[in-house]
Amino acid sequence: MKHIYKTVALGMALLPMAAWAQDDADYNDSLANKVNVAFRTVDKSDLMGGVSSVNMVELTHKNYTTYSLDHMDSYVGGFNGQLQLWNMGDALVIVDGVPRDANNVLPTEIEQITFLKSASAVVLYGSRAAKGAILITTKRGHNDGLKISVRGNASLYVPKSYPKYLGSSDFMSLYNEALTNDGKPTVYSKDDIYSYSLGDNPYRYPSLNFFSKDYLSKTYQRYDGTAEISGGGKYAHFYANIGLMHTNDLLNFGEGKKNGTTRLNIRGNIDLRLNDWITGYINANATFYDARSDRSDYWAQSAKVTPTSQNPLIPLIPIDFVSGDNATLQKMIANSNYIVDGKYLLGGTQSMQTNPFAAMYVAGWTKSTSRQMQFDMGVNFNLNQVLQGLTFKTKFAVDYATSYNTTLSNDYSTYEVKWDQNRFNSINDLTKYGTDKRSGSPTADGTVYKQTILVQGQFDYARSFGKHNVNATLLGNGYQRSLSGEYHRISNVNLGLDLNYNYNKTYYADLSMAAIHSAKLAPGHRDAVSPVMSLAWRLSNEKFMQGTKTWLTDLKLNASYGLINEDLDIEKYYMYDNKFTATGTWWGWSESANSLQTSDSQQGINKNLTFIKRKEFRAGLDANLWNGLITLNANFFDIKTNGLIISPEATFPSYFKTSWPVSSFLAYINYNNQSRTGLDFTVNAHKKFGELDLQAGVTGMVYSCKNTKYSENVAYDWLKNEGARIDALRGYQCLGFMTEKDVVRDAAGKITGYAPGIAVINNNAQPGDLKYKDQNGDGVIDGKDQVILGHWTPDFNLGFNFTANYKRFTLFMGVTGNFGGSGVKDNSYEWVYGASKYSDVALGRWTPATAATATYPRLTTQGGDLNFVTSDFWTYKTDAVRLNKVQITYDLPSSLFKGSFVHSLSVYVYGSDLLTIAKERKYMETNVGSAPQCRSYNLGLKVNF
């Protein structure tokens, strides 16, 4: 903590000078040649490897998106599209030098995104960036006069698919079948099933379909508008971005019609020059976010509520069906506070006195409100008068985010009907459940806040002595993040040193290191130094390569090796110390409790617990062929993560831990090791054919991982984690469906046992259930029989982007793919048992008649442990190729705007998430218990003034 206070004091001393900006030269460099890396900007040709950058100004013109990292795996090798670089875990996102959320900055606000993958690229950020960092740099004003740009978009979202659940009559038939399979009496008569199948009275014989057009719109919409204003002169630059967005909802009844999200963002970046040696900047951003939603939990309930039941739920009860000569019922209707559209009572049952349909109309609403305020400032000093090439800069930032919920909650009555047996459309009785009670006013709850304070200062030295180029950085960096409900703040404090030398831009050497501190470890082990050494060689500058200049424009090899100490994987504080319960079990002495009691140990002590270590070797190359026709960047990486913290139950005697009394003397230790190896690459091609300009890029990553050391004590090799993949998918090996040959029956036909060699999970198994391989031959199927069935993470990720520009037309296309990963079909749509809702997969169920063609186990009302456990019957390959984006942009001729205040105008249309090519596309595109995945179609307009 004292390290942060010292840094804060330094920053506060410089705050009065924080109204001045960066040097003009920093802004006038082309984004194509400059890359923002840790704490500085470098020439792209001088990068030392493990770094990729994307020019967002250029990209946004041809590929408009609404999320800052949308489909970045199409442009960056080694990025998996889920905040992960080289599959190490979530990377640290840094916006304008401050740790912030990627979803709170829009693509229209961004100038450049840099992906720091290698240890050499992230080491200066200390522990918090040990799994990689993503730098987002927002736009700034330039010394080129006032510029105004206005953009508007209208998007249409179309659901890809909905779950296909069976209607009432099919559900009743299959549920009866499941009861029969379990030796239980059926509950639905043939007459009932027939009446429901006719569908001629949906009130008396309902077949609930949550995805009906009665409840959902075919599409929902999103609208947004953005205004950008920038400009400046010699002494001041400014950039402002103001945006407003609104989306509505698919739900088209009750409160669902009012569902929607509105977002307002305001950003201002100001740069000022005081004199030739002091500049500074101030950045401010405010985001106002409001999301209004119903209180029905509609999507989650859509996966649970069956289309009918023994006491069928009728969402809306028509009043004109209620017997008019029954005064009691008419009085009940008259006293109801909630009559939908003046025609319907809210339906319910004794088991579902509240239900999503009734709740949608009258339960009220919730509005989630979020406010984020971000502020940072800095001062830059050119100290050439002290030492040529020396500069000093400092930064101070304060971010505050808060969110809360406002809820209007109503209680309501529902009614269960009794139908007149002599009149088809007549209700002769109503049973009321609950009480009508309107809430007087909304209530607020769920308040959450987050605050980040950052202070940093650094000296930079950059000087050239003929062909010798020297760069050095000495910095102090610290920030703390406070979260509501958490006692300990998230802290990062470190000193950094970077020494960089190159000779004639041919031979490079770089030494980067960080001194870090962590309060998660015991005193004496809280400080560490993380060093990384990098070397590079530009072969294309060598005399022996001169003969290749006609086709090999540039070729640079680079490599690095280093160690990063990190505490990201230390989950809690005080893991190094003893932990005792306040009151223990029945032994010991406690006068206050008038009994024999004592405290129980929950955790042993290990003051030698230390940082987890990322040891990385990386080798890469950068190549430019035929003067930019083809450019190539590739990195081979081998990362060892050593000293992961565990509680070593397999290493210490069993008496160190007891289940009763609940007690443990086991201390956490640094033990487990992991290895990640892979190759990422990015290949870009650019060629002009007259007025036709073509660009294409291919990105990819080949990846593997394994546990190289693992604390375990297992009886069989197939259970070992050591040597297996980190992301191994384990389960049972399925041998198909059980048949009559697999069971033994008595004279009455009752199953009394199983054939030799057949092992079961429990003794309820019968023909039509899944059977599994008994790996250890003990006659029982249990955890000892689980083997590796695949792995979750793909072996290979692929990205592709293509741009064709002809005259004023621009076509853009983005594609991604992944291969080699596996998944498990384990949601409620696939795993149907008990009284669950039946989906269409159940139609392929096993029966004696369909034993040869069945694709699904027999139906059962029992638990799921017979068939619905992880096995290769349920696993599938997640291999897929996705067409993420196609956009066509047309830039109107500038001659149309001569003499006008309009400088240019562009119109564009695009489609997103258009196509998925995969064997399991249907399953992968169907959401269960949540809103559906959607394709989107957009019409946009951009005007420059």
UniProtKB/TrEMBL annotation:
Residues of the signal sequence? 1-21
InterPro entries reported for this sequence:
Plug_dom, Plug_dom_sf, TonB-dep_OMP_SusC/RagA
Which keywords appear in this protein's UniProt record, sorted alphabetically?
Answer: Signal
Return the Gene3D superfamilies for the record.
TonB-dependent receptor, plug domain
The keyword Signal appears for this protein: yes
Pfam families listed in its UniProt record: Plug
Q: Domain TonB-dependent receptor plug, which positions?
A: 45-133
Entry superkingdom: Bacteria
Keyword Transcription regulation tagged: no
In terms of NCBIfam families, this protein maps to: OMP_RagA_SusC
Record's protein name = SusC/RagA family TonB-linked outer membrane protein
| Species | Prevotella herbatica
Q: Source organism lineage?
A: Bacteria, Pseudomonadati, Bacteroidota, Bacteroidia, Bacteroidales
